[in-house]
Amino acid sequence: MPDQPSPPAAPALFTWEFAADPYPAYAWLRRHEPVRWTTLPSGVEAWLVTRYADARTALAHPGLSKNPAHHAESTAARGRTGIPGERSANLMTHLLNIDPPDHTRLRRLVSKAFTPRTVASFAPRVQELTDRFIDGFAGRGSADLIHEFAFPLPIYTICDLLGVPARDQDDFRDWAGMMIRHGGGPRGGVARSVKKIRGYLAELIHHKREHPGDDLISGLIKASDHGEHLTENEAAAMCFVLLFAGFETTVNLIGNGAYALLRHPEQRALLQESVRRGERELLATGVEELLRWDGPVELATWRYATEPLELGGRSIAVGDPVLVVLAAADRDPERFADPDRLDLTRRDNQHLGYGHGIHYCIGAPLARLEGQTALASLLTRLPDLALAADPEELRWRGGLIMRGLRELPVAFTPS
Fold first, then answer.
1. For the domain 16-411, what is the CATH superfamily, name and number?
2. Looking at residue 150, what is its pLDDT?
């Protein structure tokens, strides 16, 4: 019997070239090693799960905990998983780090801020902010869509949701900017920003207890005062994770989405004409496709096995970390027809861009509202928007979880 040809060499992961376009490497992993034990840049070892079926199973598996205490090497890995600085700032008890029943209790409390009715009430404010930021550069004929548009929009929206006074929102923008700029660099920069946010949230929670308003922080305090047993640390951690997870995912949704449209002129023209006619259906399906095709979250946040289990034919031991690669799962040809093609009309699109199961992103409705509003406004107000840089020159932020551009220079006719 003739020798079987050996598979091509495994691709290098987590290099700068990989960051620019990880999808060929993920295709190799799906085909040859769909569940792979990998050493991450931090030195922590973990399983990478890349096929859609395995990813969907892992995201909802009761034997995979979100609590870092279940990591078999939790002492050695302390500070190298999760959000930098959250442990030292006493911000660990949030939705990304806990399991039921605490997760159920805290999610129930915060879910009131993301009902369809509540999110719809934010639409005028999101549109107001969107117009304000476009006004800031529309007359110039050029802009960096990340720093001048995609970044500030979700920051100020989240601040409004939390109840951060207008006079303090620029400080939040600065702290969030530190987290963005240092996302792939020294963790100390992020940790310092987290410490500043923690100190501010402690003061704000105290103020809201004395002077409540119609905002999320006041609602959490009210729930605590009415027997929901929400500690001050839990309230601060909840607000922190909504800021941290809520703003950067939306920055990347808008940035990656605009970049994809600029590089696919036929899809962009289709959406632009639909928006011009005042139709919303293609805008909604289009944003879902942008989430699938090059979404804002590359890997789901950490999970740890609490029992022996099997994924993709591999045995996962108790205490092993598991990272679900959403970007790989959402390009799986076993689930999506012609997955590498951007198709804004795609209907069968049950992507995993915002997760699956009990940890499905609670802020997804607000992020979708912001993404739809931002992209529709750009296409309407700057109809000849064009990329003002060679795609090869664009840099992607380093980091394990999020996927987004450092900058996105564009040009257009001043208006």
1. Cytochrome P450 (1.10.630.10)
2. 96
Q: Which two tokens stand for residue 234?
A: 């839990």
Interatomic CA distance for residues 107 and 122, integer angstroms = 20
**Dihedral pair phi/psi, residue 138, rounded to 5°:** -60, -35
Q: Within 13 Å of residue 166, how many CA atoms lie on the same side as its CB? A: 1
pLDDT score, position 85: 67
* Torsion region of 263: left, alpha or beta (phi above 0 gives left; psi -120 to 50 gives alpha): alpha
CB 377 within 8 A of CB 130: yes
Angstrom distances, CA of residue 325 to CA of 62, 238, 288, 296, 393: 18, 25, 18, 12, 26
Q: Contact, 256 vs 290, CB < 8 A?
A: yes
Q: Which residues contact 307 (CB under 8 A, 6 or more apart)?
A: 63, 318
Is the distance from CB of 386 to CB of 237 less than 8 angstroms?
A: no
Global pTM? 0.92
Strands ordered across the beta sheet of 45-49: 35-39, 45-49, 321-324, 303-305, 64-65
Q: How far apart are CA 351 and CA 334, in angstroms?
A: 13
H-helix or E-strand spanning residue 311 = strand 309-311
145 Cβ contact list (under 8 Å, min separation 6): 254, 255, 258, 378, 408, 409, 410
Q: What is the distance, to the nearest Å, from the Cα of residue 323 to the centroid of all Cα atoms in its chain?
A: 15
| Alpha-carbon gap, residue 151 to 133, rounded angstroms | 10
Q: Is 70 helix (H, G, I), strand (E, B) or coil?
A: helix
Residue 344 has which token pair?
């804004």
Apex CA 249: angle with CA 248 and CA 253, to 5°?
Answer: 115
Residue at 250: amino acid letter? T
The segments of the chain whose pLDDT lies below 70 read: 1-7, 73-80, 82-85, 88-90, 180-189, 224-229
Handedness of CA 285, 290, 296, 301 (dihedral sign): positive
Q: Identity (one letter) of the amino acid at 32?
A: H
Residue 189 has a pLDDT of 63
Q: Name residue, tokens 């993404």.
A: 371
Cα Rg of the chain, angstroms: 21
